[in-house]
Amino acid sequence: MAFVFAAHDSVLDRPVVIKAVELQPEAVGTFIREARTIARLDHPHILDVYDLGTEQIGEENLVYLVMQLASGGTLTNRLREGPLPPNEVRRILYQVGNALDYAHRQGVVHLDLKPANILFDEHGNVLVADFGLAQLLYNANPAKADAFANTLAYMPPEQMLGQEVTPASDVYALGLTLHEMLTGELPEREWTDEGLISRPAPSLPPAIRAVLEKATHHHSGQRYATAGELAEAFAEALARSPSGLPERQAPSAIPPGPSVK
Fold first, then answer.
1. What pTM does this model have?
2. pLDDT tens-place string over residues 196-228
3. Is 112 a catalytic residue?
4. Active-site residue among 9, 42, 48, 112?
5. Which residues of 61-77 are buried (b: 16+ CB within 10 A; e: fewer)?
6. How far, CA to CA in Å, does 26 sit from each of 21, 57, 132, 157?
7. Which residues is 128 bridged to in the sheet?
8. Averaged pLDDT, 116-144
9. Domain 75-137+150-239 carries which CATH code?
10. Which class does domain 2-68 fall in?
């Protein structure tokens, strides 16, 4: 079971978020060792991990992460108002893609990418949260894998089937998230003899549907090689599709931030 709550770092005088997870005693050491890798990720679009440690409360063994507080809300919050403006989608996609590609180069796969884990700072720039946490918890306590599983709606087929997960697994989840940013909904997915087939909304322009189909291909080797490639392909398709996308004004209180490439 995981607990998340806001707190204040009295030493450094800053707001933080603490995520605490209950683990079996024999799993705590594994968690701490692997969490150090996550904490070393240093990128402008990845939520900072400031500290980690353990605490025993009664018979419960808790491990905790102290993280940066993202004051701009989540992508889930924004999507409650419907599809995002295309240029805002492009900006968010670039920033998430940059974060993913950086982490992949460090050997870290997210495995739980979804709008709830895409946060924003006070300037509207992306902060991807919970990097590698799903895999970290699984490695620490595989007997309770179901409790830590990736949200099924965004899970790539290879992960559902217990097969090898790679950076392409994150590209798949990013493709699903891209569809949701454009339409307000996830694409239809259906198991067939070929595998889990994703069907983008027919209302989208053909060039953008083609990008989504490649990003969410049921064979991981047929997807974009990197998240950055997906972002570039979407930008090119968007330039060729000046109409046919829903329009909504970006939140005026949060100015758009620069892309980091």
1. 0.87
2. 999 999 999 999 999 999 999 999 999 999 999
3. yes
4. 112
5. bbbbbbbbbbebebbee
6. 14, 16, 20, 31
7. 46, 118
8. 81
9. 1.10.510.10
10. alpha beta
